[in-house]
Design a protein that fits this description.
8 strands, 11% strand, 4-stranded parallel β-sheet, alpha/beta, 378 residues, single chain
Length: 378
């Protein structure tokens, strides 16, 4: 498949990719820390949105600013700023998410000497009429703020064009996920990982065309493809910065048929109504998309969603990847386990950080879990 290497290269060094893009196009590069960031507004301002995942470098500068119990993503993002490796960024926006990310916003504002800083204080409770009004007001303020920071005018036409592009990207990624759910052997899991994360890094106009071609290639490969095995696995949790997890599960005999990551299925969930006022359309998608544990709609919506996802994708089991020190997802786990236990769906908890345990140890654990799935099938 011709674009896989391009996705890999972009993900291998996102800041280098952004630096080259900036030199070639002159676009401002705006970093963001959460999938609730309104990418369309950044794109309509003529800038390039870049998701910040942390760092692959050793973390040491940020340790003097953050508590040891902050997750590796927060520490890694601050490390990239303090080391000035991220000085390609013309600004960074911080949507209102977990406590650690909000404190990262403060640390960035006080300690990083380059680029502008903007908080986007989205509502936490999402199922009320006032939440919708508040969400629209916050997005309109963000539109005004970034217009002022970049000294540009953001037109409704530019917003509609950005909406059309992001809708196309999300639909292509969903189609890739759907095809892999039916035929997991079409594309290795680590390549799926590269595609979805590269979609938060690469130039969106170029990306939309590339993804459409990748979809066409996968549809060709799907003709005559064999059926999936019965060791179908759903991944759940916040985010996974470890592509090796996919390979380890697959080498153990499992087939990853979907996920519930904010750097995965939650990122492309939902389409923006192209016929609506663009700011209202963006707000409605953020309100209706699969909820994050840092947001609230009801007490058990997350568990019901993952249970239904496991049933829809015919997953034999769920592997919950818990990023170390991620409290919102840690609070998710007990009642998620209760729901899955009641439904008879096995659940495995794996704690991950910026490094994985020894690969042999991890693969042995995955093999044991997958063997249990075989024993429990009717």
């Amino acid at each position: 498949m011709k674009h896989l290497e391009e996705y890999r290269r972009a993900l291998a060094d996102p800041l280098a990719y952004a630096r080259n893009l900036k030199q070639e196009t002159g676009k401002a590069v705006i970093g963001y820390t959460c999938s609730y960031a309104p990418e369309e507004v950044i794109m309509a301002a003529g800038a390039h949105p870049l998701r910040l995942f942390g760092t692959k470098k050793q973390i040491h500068l940020s340790d003097s600013h953050l508590q040891s119990y902050c997750c590796s993503v927060v520490r890694g993002i601050l490390e990239e700023g303090l080391s000035r490796r991220a000085d390609v960024l013309d600004g960074v926006i911080f949507p209102h998410t977990c406590d650690s990310m909000q404190r990262l916003s403060d640390m960035w504002r006080m300690n990083i000497p380059f680029g502008f800083h903007l908080d986007v204080t989205l509502p936490v409770k999402l199922d009320t009429e006032s939440a919708k009004e508040y969400m629209i007001d916050v997005l309109k303020k963000f539109r005004d703020d970034i217009s002022r920071k970049l000294n540009v005018e953001i037109s409704d036409d530019a917003l509609q064009k950005a909406v059309s592009t992001t809708n196309a990207i999300r639909q292509s990624i969903r189609t890739i996920y759907d095809l892999r759910s039916q035929y997991p052997h079409l594309l290795p899991g680590d390549d799926l990982y590269n595609i979805v994360r590269a979609s938060m890094i690469m130039d969106r106009d170029q990306l939309a065309g590339m993804l459409a071609e990748t979809v066409a290639e996968l549809r060709e490969l799907a003709i005559g493809a064999g059926p999936a095995s019965e060791k179908r696995v759903l991944l759940a949790g916040g985010m996974c910065n470890q592509p090796d997890v996919y390979a380890l599960i697959e080498r153990a005999g499992g087939e990853i048929v979907w996920d519930d990551f904010c750097t995965g299925a939650r990122y492309f969930d939902g389409q923006i109504d192209a016929g609506a006022d663009p700011m209202t359309g963006i707000a409605e998608r953020l309100l209706k998309r699969v909820v994050c544990p840092a947001k609230h709609i009801d007490l058990d919506g997350r568990a019901r969603h993952i249970l239904q996802l496991a049933k829809d994708k015919k997953a034999a089991g769920v592997i919950f990847l818990l990023l170390k020190f991620c409290d919102p997802h840690a609070f998710d786990y007990p009642y998620l386990k209760e729901y899955l236990d009641e439904a008879g769906i096995p659940l495995m908890l794996v704690e991950i950080d910026d490094t994985l345990p020894a690969s042999g140890q991890m693969q042995t654990r995955f093999e044991a879990f997958l063997e249990m799935l075989e024993k429990e099938k009717p």
